[in-house]
């Protein structure tokens, strides 16, 4: 039999993502396309407005699907399976992609795979390397800071999570505080290049913990005090970035040692951060990051998760949960 073409859809938040991958008979997976429409209507509110997000998905999804098919050089009838994010996320936003994907699969008479958004983030790294258990996976995005141990393919053990803000949320909030704009991650990383990482002393969160949890509220408070004390935005950015990166890397390395894992997947929007990548590469662990354009929310990562489920003969994702299943 020939290749299996899998369409992936993610509309969990404010990005309309559609991508296509190809599962080859030898088990390898190839990325054929990845198209994302990033909604800009939310910028003026300083946060995502759920109702507006859903409406934009409804308006854009046809066009993004056509773009993704065109980029892949396929027509809709070439598709052999459809995968879409079923959660977690904004329910109205999720429903657009989920129902669209289900309807499409039914019309084409091909299998439908519901995917967990975090399994999608993890499988974004499958664009770069064959992803086979066992490994450890750190998902760092605007909504999640979750550390999973993956002893067997399709089995996820949550070993640590944030106790307050997600890592990306902390980048966004501190960027807003320092007047660096939105989204905060890229803004902080850019400003940090012109700042002194020693200018603002940040205390490492949860020092001495035996667990593998995360917390960013302390860094946020320290940033607010430094800002009020007159710290330069660039110095604040550089100092915060160094503290956050060090905390994320140290905690993940401890978890890798405790679980005897050599391979670590680091994914989600914050995995695009250059300083974070550099620090992880210096650990000596086998660290796998998603390819370009696959860190932040997208449809190709959902297609990759779907392809892995098909390859394993699984009917649906092991993380196919409700919208709140893994909320911190
Ligand atoms: O994965 P994602 O698109 O959405 C969620 O599922 O949450 O992640 C978005 C988050 C935002 O908080 C954004 O500020 C952060 O990822 N981000 C970054 C960088 N690029 C995006 N954080 C740090 N450095 C970056 N270069
Ligand atoms: Zn995400």
From TrEMBL:
Its EC number is 2.3.1.234. InterPro entries: ATPase_NBD, Gcp-like_dom, KAE1/TsaD, TsaD. Residues 30-303 form the Gcp-like domain. Pfam families: TsaD (PF00814). Its cofactor is Fe(2+). Fe cation binds at residues 117, 121, 297. The keyword Transferase applies. The keyword Disulfide bond does not apply. It is found in: Cytoplasm. It comes from the Bacteria. Substrate binds at residues 139-143, 172, 185, 273. Keywords: Acyltransferase, Cytoplasm, Iron, Metal-binding, Transferase, tRNA processing. Its main location: cytoplasm. It catalyses: L-threonylcarbamoyladenylate + adenosine(37) in tRNA = N(6)-L-threonylcarbamoyladenosine(37) in tRNA + AMP + H(+). Binds 1 Fe(2+) ion per subunit. Belongs to the KAE1 / TsaD family. PANTHER family: TRNA N6-ADENOSINE THREONYLCARBAMOYLTRANSFERASE, TRNA N6-ADENOSINE THREONYLCARBAMOYLTRANSFERASE, MITOCHONDRIAL. Required for the formation of a threonylcarbamoyl group on adenosine at position 37 (t(6)A37) in tRNAs that read codons beginning with adenine. Is involved in the transfer of the threonylcarbamoyl moiety of threonylcarbamoyl-AMP (TC-AMP) to the N6 group of A37, together with TsaE and TsaB. TsaD likely plays a direct catalytic role in this reaction. HAMAP family: TsaD. This is tRNA N6-adenosine threonylcarbamoyltransferase. It comes from Deinococcus depolymerans. The gene is tsaD.
């Amino acid at each position: 039999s020939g290749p299996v073409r899998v369409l992936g859809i993610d509309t969990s938040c404010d990005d309309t993502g559609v991508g296509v991958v190809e599962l080859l008979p030898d088990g390898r997976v190839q990325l054929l396309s990845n198209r994302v429409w990033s909604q800009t209507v939310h910028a003026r509110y300083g946060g995502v407005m759920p109702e507006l997000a859903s409406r934009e998905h409804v308006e854009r999804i046809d066009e993004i699907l056509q773009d993704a098919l065109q980029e892949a050089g396929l027509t809709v009838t070439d598709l052999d399976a459809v995968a879409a994010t079923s959660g977690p996320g904004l329910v109205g936003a999720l429903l657009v992609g989920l129902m669209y994907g289900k309807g499409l699969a039914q019309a084409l008479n091909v299998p439908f795979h519901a995917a967990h958004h975090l399994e999608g983030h993890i499988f974004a790294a499958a664009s770069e390397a064959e992803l086979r258990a066992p490994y450890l996976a750190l998902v760092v995005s605007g909504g999640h800071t979750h550390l999973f141990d993956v002893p067997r393919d399709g089995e996820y053990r949550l070993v640590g999570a944030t106790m307050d803000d997600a890592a990306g949320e902390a980048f966004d909030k501190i960027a807003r505080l320092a007047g660096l704009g939105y989204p905060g991650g890229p803004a902080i990383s850019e400003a940090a290049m012109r700042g002194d990482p020693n200018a603002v002393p940040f205390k490492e969160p949860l020092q001495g913990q035996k667990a593998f949890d995360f917390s960013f509220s302390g860094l946020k408070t320290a940033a607010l005090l430094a800002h009020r004390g007159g710290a330069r935005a660039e110095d604040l950015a550089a100092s915060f970035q160094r503290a956050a990166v060090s905390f994320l890397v140290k905690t993940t390395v401890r978890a890798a040692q405790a679980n005897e894992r050599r391979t670590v997947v680091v994914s989600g929007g914050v995995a695009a951060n250059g300083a974070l990548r550099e620090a992880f590469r210096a650990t000596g662990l086998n660290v796998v990051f998603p390819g370009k354009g696959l860190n932040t929310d997208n449809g190709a990562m959902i297609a990759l998760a779907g392809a892995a489920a098909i390859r394993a003969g699984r009917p649906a994702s092991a993380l196919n949960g409700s919208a709140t299943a893994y909320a911190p």
